[in-house]
Amino acid sequence: MAAPFTTHHLLVILSVLAACSIVSNAQLSSNFYDKTCPNLQSIVLSTMKQAVINEPRMGASILRLFFHDCFVNGCDGSILLDDTATFTGEKSAGPNKNSARGFNVIDTIKSNVEASCNDTVSCADILALAARDGVVLLGGPSWTVALGRRDATTASQSAANNQIPSPFSDLSTLTSMFSAKGLTARDLTALSGAHTIGQAQCQFFKNRIYNETNIDPSFATSRKVNCPFTGGNTNLAPLETLTPARFDNNYYRDLVAKRGLLHSDQVLFNGGSQDGLVRSYSANNGGVAFFSDFAAAMVKMGNISPLTGSSGEIRKNCRVVN
Ligand code: HEM
């Protein structure tokens, strides 16, 4: 005779389900590949070193790739997938198209890693390590990268279009888009300090330099030279004016001086809730707090919904699903 279904049965089922969900949310760990790929970290670092020597901007480009990966369905390497005749992924989404770069460097790291330990390390983890190394190589803080992410077998162009903030966003939009990823306003302000390195295209700051008023006039004039009112949309300018190839706290000095390049940069210092934090990061010794907040926020960003356990796969080629 079958036992009647009781509350006890329900509790057993619920606790089994809870245990499963803990397993599928398994924590990442810094020693994940210690046995299976002991040279992983030195392979990533040496390949990044060469890439940054060839072109310092590459440290910035890879850091941005990681941000755009993590903000779209978690840090799962989905941004690395190429579009095909039957698959439209994230590379051709608005925030990435003709803008995201550094894919060849990730390919080089992946093939160097495969040569040492094949079918073992995910592209998502390679990107997480490469982003950290790029920051370090340009003079920024270091942090321990937790590992064990697996690679997505899908990607979402619409999520990339909707969940990566636009440079025309106001502070409230930025705050809520970061909050949707479990990141605080403080994380937003610290992570935006990534714009201490790298470059932006004229089309993303044209409105700011021609139409906005909370901008240092001599800065606006100097940026107009290479960003004409008509045309020049892909011309580049450094995101930070003083030391654009060095990871330091000068981004915040720019903001305090109304020299933020993007609208989304200057909103962090425009009479709102982040003014005090920006001012403190900009101080002579403010780089210490910035570095430690940035590193902590990168760890948090790197933990956004990873695929772990038997979810996803270890891609053989970062550009294509196995
Ligand atoms: C807060 C919202 C953010 C907005 C609206 C934003 C927007 C942008 C835009 C429009 C560019 C220039 C792209 C181009 O011209 O092709 C850019 C560049 C960059 N972003 Fe952000 N970003 C944000 C946050 C972040 C975060 C959180 C990071 C990393 C932690 C980051 C890292 C970078 C880097 C390093 C570059 C330079 C890339 C290069 O030179 O190739 N950004 N961002």
From TrEMBL:
Cofactor dependence: heme b; Ca(2+)
Binding note for cofactor: Binds 1 heme b (iron(II)-protoporphyrin IX) group per subunit. Binds 2 calcium ions per subunit.
Enzyme class: oxidoreductase
InterPro entries (UniProt xref): Haem_peroxidase, Haem_peroxidase_sf, Peroxidase_pln, Peroxidases_AS, Peroxidases_heam-ligand_BS, Secretory_peroxidase
GO MF terms, alphabetically ordered: lactoperoxidase activity
Signal peptide (UniProt feature, chain positions): 1-26
A Pfam family annotated for this UniProt entry: peroxidase
Entry EC number(s): 1.11.1.7
Subcellular localization, as worded in the UniProt entry: Secreted
Reactions mediated catalytically: 2 a phenolic donor + H2O2 = 2 a phenolic radical donor + 2 H2O
Statement: the UniProt record of this protein carries the keyword Disulfide bond: yes
Residue intervals of the Plant heme peroxidase family profile domain: 27-322
Keywords assigned: Calcium, Disulfide bond, Heme, Hydrogen peroxide, Iron, Metal-binding, Oxidoreductase, Peroxidase, Secreted, Signal
Gene3D superfamilies: 1.10.520.10, Peroxidase, domain 2
Role played: Removal of H(2)O(2), oxidation of toxic reductants, biosynthesis and degradation of lignin, suberization, auxin catabolism, response to environmental stresses such as wounding, pathogen attack and oxidative stress. These functions might be dependent on each isozyme/isoform in each plant tissue.
UniProt record similarity statement: Belongs to the peroxidase family. Ascorbate peroxidase subfamily. Belongs to the peroxidase family. Classical plant (class III) peroxidase subfamily.
Protein name: Peroxidase
Organism: Stylosanthes scabra
Primary gene name: PER52_2
